[in-house]
């Protein structure tokens, strides 16, 4: 999931968890994370992105609030199907 440029810029006036959520949302929007794809575990994401596990947890919560992912306890977090266009 990691590109070469850092995902988080602490000097930006944006919460770190929002930067992480925006990064993952961008991967979903670009198709790099397709509907049904499972996100890596919190620990792996934290290591890859160089942030604390609590930051990843809050970012995933943000993505759920945006309707981009769903979390199944004991199974993982998955990208949801986009709503059908009317």
Automatic annotation (TrEMBL):
InterPro entries: Bact_HTH_transcr_reg (IPR050679), Tscrpt_reg_HTH_GntR (IPR000524), WH-like_DNA-bd_sf (IPR036388), WH_DNA-bd_sf (IPR036390). One of its GO terms (biological process) is negative regulation of DNA-templated transcription. Residues 14-82 form the HTH gntR-type domain. Keywords: DNA-binding, Transcription, Transcription regulation. One of its GO terms (molecular function) is DNA-binding transcription factor activity. Gene3D superfamilies: Winged helix-like DNA-binding domain superfamily/Winged helix DNA-binding domain (1.10.10.10). The keyword Secreted does not apply. The keyword Transcription applies. This is Winged helix-turn-helix transcriptional regulator. It comes from Streptomyces luteolifulvus.
């Amino acid at each position: 999931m990691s590109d070469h440029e850092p995902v988080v810029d602490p000097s930006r006036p944006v919460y770190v968890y929002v930067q992480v959520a925006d990064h993952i949302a961008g991967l979903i929007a670009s198709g790099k994370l397709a509907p049904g794809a499972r996100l890596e575990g919190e620990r792996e994401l934290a290591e890859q992105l160089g942030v604390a596990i609590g930051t990843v947890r809050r970012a995933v919560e943000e993505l759920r609030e945006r309707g981009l992912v769903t979390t199944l306890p004991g199974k993982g977090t998955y990208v949801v199907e986009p709503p059908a266009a009317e």
